[in-house]
Amino acid sequence: MRHFLPYLLILFLLAALLRIDFFFIIAYFFFAIYLLSRGWINRIERGLRVSRRFSSRAFFGDKVNVEINVINDSWLPAPWIELRESLPIELATPSFFQQVVSLHGRGRRQLNYTLYCHHRGYYSLGPLQAHTGDLLGLADKELKRNAEYIIVYPRLVSMQQLGLPTRSPLAILKTPTPLFEDSSRVIGVREYQRGDSPRKIHWTASASAGQILVKNYQPAIARETLIALDLDYASYPMRHRYSAIEMAITVAASIANHTIVHQHLPTGIATEARDAASKSVTRFFFPPRSERSHLAHILESLARAQAVEGVTPFAEMLRRESVHLSWGTTLLVITARADESLLKTLAYLQRSGFAVALIVIHFGRVPLDLQAKADVLGIKVYAVWDDVDLGSI
Amino acid sequence: MISSNHRYLSLFIHPLLIGAMVGCVLTPIVDIIRTFVSTWDSLSVFTLCALAALEGSYAHHLIRARELRGWDALRFRVIEIGMIVIVIKVISLLIYPPPNIIALLVSWTNNPFSIFDPQTIIGLVIAFTAWHTATTTAEDIADLSRFVFPNEMSGSYISPLQRLNERYFLSGGILLAATGVNYTPLAELISLTRPTLSNVILNVLIYFVLGLVLLGQARYTALSADWKMREIKVSGDIENRWLRYSLILVFIAGAAVIFLPTRYALSLLDLINTVIAVMFGIVFIFSQIIAVLIAIPLTLLIMFMPKLPPLPFALPLPPVRLPTPPATPSSDWTEFLRSLIFWAMLIGVAFYIVVNYLRERPELLAVLRSSKVIRVLRGW
Questions:
Q1: CA of B6: how far to CAs of A147, B141, B232, in Å?
Q2: Which ipTM did the prediction report?
Q3: Residue A249: which region, alpha, beta or left (left: phi > 0; alpha: psi -120 to 50)?
Q4: First-to-last CA distance in chain A?
Q5: Residue B67: partners with Cβ closer than 8 Å, 6 or more residues away
Q6: Residue of A14, A18, A26, A10 lying closest to B184 (CA atoms)
Q7: C-alpha–C-alpha distance, residues A223 and A260, integer Å
Q8: What is the rounded (10 degree) CA torsion for B120, B125, B130, B131?
Q9: A361 closest CA partner among A239, A200, A216
Q10: B212 — contact with chain A (CB < 8 Å)?
């Protein structure tokens, strides 16, 4: 209520001028109403707690229930509280949640709404605004609760659906390259056999066992996979850009899931994209590992990654990241544009001892010219477009 | 169920309360007028206000429901105003019957404006004030639920709730001023040393308490309309709680004021009075100084001006008496015809107004038809 205090002042002046005691009582009555209303709402503001509870990670297709708890810690009732929460349009329609509640003193109310996770991404819930006021419009208060974030992982599909071989790492099983061992990763000991290198003898264990034992190393080749994902905006055809980029991310996530969960093989990811969390172009690089928590990190990165213009050229990024990989690692390259420079880089990497496979996000079969060039280079090429077409690839 | 409750509230309870509040404001004003002219008593004022407020509110509802615009709305309003005039005149005649009805009718024929005697004029002012207040308040209450387009929200835009608040406080100020003048003789109004009055003034109490509860309800109506327009789900029984909390708030504030030592304000009052007296004194001295400063050069100017000869004094001429026209034998006949035409027109207009008024309000007509008095009259 605007101008309430000037009105009150005029009331006092009238009472003073007319010298009628009852008018003073009326003026005091309004003054009491004013003070009570403001005091009431201040108490409510201090005692009002609004919290949000939800699962901050969700898989594609999940329904996430968000609980909003409104608690009035004050002894005074809150006549009305208007709550408004902004929601991502990709997860909820309409893109806000709003409700009006009334709470008794020491009362609480639980409100719920559902998010439909049909789009991978990193989304903010909120900020949550709580607006309350008195009965006459003398006092209004607004509370704001910071936004929280939810990550929706990319869609995961089976390898059969993708039309890719289930025996990962794709090209490596057919390679004649012998297994190499990584001397930094000892997985056990065994008895000495003729031909074993004296450098492999485990002297401490041999001394305690009373016989010569040699170290058993973990095989270091062929069982590691790095998924290199091209998220340069320009690499995807303008007409189907959104769906093609999403498909590329789906393929990357599905392969990572397949190799880590089903094959228990170390898998990593390398891409350069805009991070939805930091809002800047970020290099996402996770070296190959096989733990489930590592898969979660990969999926989280893929959820946050957004295609962007002006990143490092994909071929250059592949060369840069290959430095960090073990010899013999399978390199799975996902892109929609396999140009000359990329093919040259892939050929170079193959010659450098990596097993290379190329997945092209392309409608229909692999283009004939690309297939011909890849055959010459000895690179396996797959074309993926969408779930329906995948089976026929 | 809810809509019928709301309809009942907006058509009967709100107008009656608004009528009562207008009555509270007008009673001290009429009391002041009564010191000069014999006129309506307090009960009549309240009755007039309640009737006029009910009529105004119902007419507003009908205009909105029938979406009357332009000529139709003007015709509706003219008939309505005519009906109010007729009813006020009839009530005035019933409450204060004239000693000689024939002489009254003759005087009306000779001078039609004598129909509007002071009694009727004061009654009309009371009724139209209540009618106007009820109509504008009903409009504002209806506007609380109206969507406001962004282009309407210019700098001069005042929300309906704000208009209601302002009307409430402005009328409250008028009420206090009128009551104060009514309780204090005008000559003593600026006396700062007179004793204070300490009795409870019922109409002031009713006005402010009633208004406060109604303003709380108006605030709820505005908020709930806003929530409805924005499709916000409202959980819990806010409406009933609102009324309950409003009453509790008014009760606590009232109790605090009654039980707290507010009478100490009188010393504050004296202090304020002293400050006001000093301020008045200073203003008076300054105005005297300014007057003297203006008067001195003017006096000097007049002193140095050449003296003009005095104007010759002449008595005004007596008025010329016009010859009286000779009496015609047909003067009685034309007088009768003129009277006949006047009454025919008066009755015709009144009949037209009443018939159209009832036609436009079929519910009222049905109520009248079903009433026992009318049935007895029709049977007879």
A1: 40, 12, 20
A2: 0.71
A3: alpha
A4: 70
A5: none
A6: A18
A7: 11
A8: 80
A9: A239
A10: yes
How many Å lie between the alpha carbon of B74 and the closest alpha carbon of chain A? 35
The answer to whether residue B38 neighbours chain A at the CB level (below 8 Å) is: no
Q: How many CB atoms lie within 10 A of CB B159?
A: 16
Residues of A with CB under 8 A from a CB of B: 1-3, 7, 10-11, 13-26, 28-30, 32-33, 36-37, 40, 77, 79-80, 82, 98-102, 109, 111, 135-137
DSSP string, B147-177: PPPGGG--TT---HHHHHHHHHHHHHHHHHH
- Main-chain dihedrals φ then ψ at residue A231, nearest 5 degrees: -120, 35
Closest CA in chain B for residue A30: B253
Say whether B233 and A100 touch across the interface (CB within 8 A): yes
In the predicted structure, residue A300 carries a pLDDT above the cut 70: yes
A49 alpha-carbon distance from chain centroid = 29
CA–CA gap between residue B239 and residue B217 (Å, rounded): 9
Spatial contact of B78 and B71, defined as CB atoms under 8 Å apart: no
Cβ-Cβ contacts under 8 Å between A and B: the total is: 146
Structure tokens at A142: 């607004």
Residue B245 · residue A79 · CB < 8 Å = yes
- DSSP structural state of residue A201: B
d(CA A90, CA A123): 9
Chain B residues closer than 8 Å to A109 by CB: 235-236
What type of residue sits at position A74?
A: S
Tokens 């060039």 found at: A373
| Stretch 264-323 of chain B: residues touching chain A, C-beta under 8 Å | 265-266, 268-269, 272-273, 276
Mutation to test the A interface, candidates B157, B192, B214, B232, most A Cβ within 10 Å: B232
Q: Do A29 and B232 touch (CB under 8 A)?
A: no
Spatial separation of the C-alpha atoms in residues A237 and A327, rounded to whole Å: 34
Helix (H) or strand (E) holding A190: strand A181-191
CA angle A166, A121, A167 (to 5 degrees): 5
CA distance A185 to A218: 6
User: Within the 183-202 window of chain B, which residues sit less than 8 Å (CB to CB) from chain A?
Assistant: 183-184, 189, 194-201
Q: Do B235 and A99 touch (CB under 8 A)?
A: yes
Q: Walk along chain B (380 residues) in steps of 10 and give the mean pLDDT of each run.
A: 61 80 84 76 80 85 84 89 89 83 82 82 87 87 77 75 87 87 70 62 86 87 88 83 88 82 58 73 87 85 70 66 60 74 82 83 80 75
Distance between CA A142 and CA A132 in Å, rounded?
6
State if pTM tops 0.80.
no
- At A115, the pLDDT band (50, 70, 90 cuts) reads very high
